[in-house]
Amino acid sequence: MRPIHLAVLFTVAAIWGASFMLIKVMNEEVTPLAIAWIRLGGGGVVITGVMIAMRPQIPRDARTWAHVVVVGAIGTAIPYVLIPWGTAQIPSNLAAVLNGAMPFWVAILSTLFLPAERLTRNKGIGVGLGFAGLAIIIGLDAFDFGSGSTRGQFAIILAALAYAAGAVYLRRFLLGTSPWFLACAQDWVAFLMVTPLVLGAGEVPDFGSLEGDTIVAAIATSVLAQGAAIPLYYWLIANVEATQASFVTYLAPVTAQFWGWLVLSEVPGLALIPGMALVIGGMLFLNRRAKVAAPQPGAAGAVVAATIASDGSRTDH
Predict the structure, then answer these.
(1) Of 76, 81, 145, 295, whose CB has the highest number of CB atoms within 10 Å?
(2) 317 in a domain, yes or no?
(3) Residue 116 has what pLDDT?
(4) Using one digit for the tens of pLDDT, what is the confidence trace for 198-247?
(5) Count: domains in the chain
(6) Does the pLDDT at position 158 exceed 90?
(7) Helices 229-237, 179-200: inter-axial angle, 10-degree rounding
(8) Is residue 119 part of a domain?
């Protein structure tokens, strides 16, 4: 990779790693539904600007839009609510690692629902290592469903499952669709789904009364984690090999440890380090495959879907 590619790679990893810390900061004053609503609304404005600048082809057929609605619900709206809810119950650095279950769910779901995908030996080893790491991290708390910490951890894992289901669905039904259009459309579809829930629950924040750090976190998670990082990541996977772009998957949980320590004084628990090592090791096995040819201009939509679904490398939160 060229220096510009490395710079974008580390920038996206740092932003997505920080998103868990930012959500944790917002948890102090804003409800999970409202956090999702703010992220989708603010980020949607930025992504829309990018889409207008890129001028992608916008599908006009109802069938494509119906698939976009499904992906927006499963792959965006649901995890965007689950992650703030789960992060409110557990440390942000733990949430970042648990979200690493996404590629392992992708490996399982793609084998079940994508005819071209097979559960290879490397995939099997990767999935086994990944879920072993998650089991070590959760530990005996997995059997204590009355604990808020346990519910929070399972909420993050379910969010990762929703991300994976959305990615597999996207690959099956929307392969070849412009990634710039998909990023924008999914965001606004999810925003429209979350809005009536926020209004109905009376959880629209009183922005004038929020603390300064909450406002900063809201702006950062909307403009950076949602609005800027996703277009940057799509640009990256359109310009480097899919396996190289997937390094974001490994780096984001690591950067999350740094942000959690720096801002929230979070210290990784004894089980988190070996568990995270197994999760990252599992990701490496999932990516042990033949080299992927460098993507050709104009094939960005296929590259996005293939990278997300096969490598499980989408880690936006």
Answers:
(1) 76
(2) no
(3) 79
(4) 999 999 999 999 999 999 999 999 999 988 998 888 888 778 876 677 77
(5) 1
(6) yes
(7) 150
(8) yes
Which residue is associated with the tokens 């929020």? 210
Structural domain including 158 reads 3-311
Give the burial class of 175: count Cβ atoms within 10 A of its Cβ; 0-12 exposed, 13-18 middle, 19 or more buried. Answer: middle
pTM of this prediction?
0.85
Euclidean distance between CA atoms 302 and 317, whole angstroms: 22
Measured between alpha carbons, how far is 174 from 233 in angstroms, rounded to an integer? 18
Return d(Cα 248, Cα 180) in angstroms, integer.
19
Helix ranges restricted to H, the chain: 3-27, 32-54, 62-72, 78-87, 92-98, 102-113, 121-138, 148-174, 179-200, 212-219, 229-237, 242-245, 247-264, 272-286, 300-306
DSSP secondary structure letters along 85-132: HHHTTS-HHHHHHHGGGHHHHHHHHHHHH-TT----HHHHHHHHHHHH
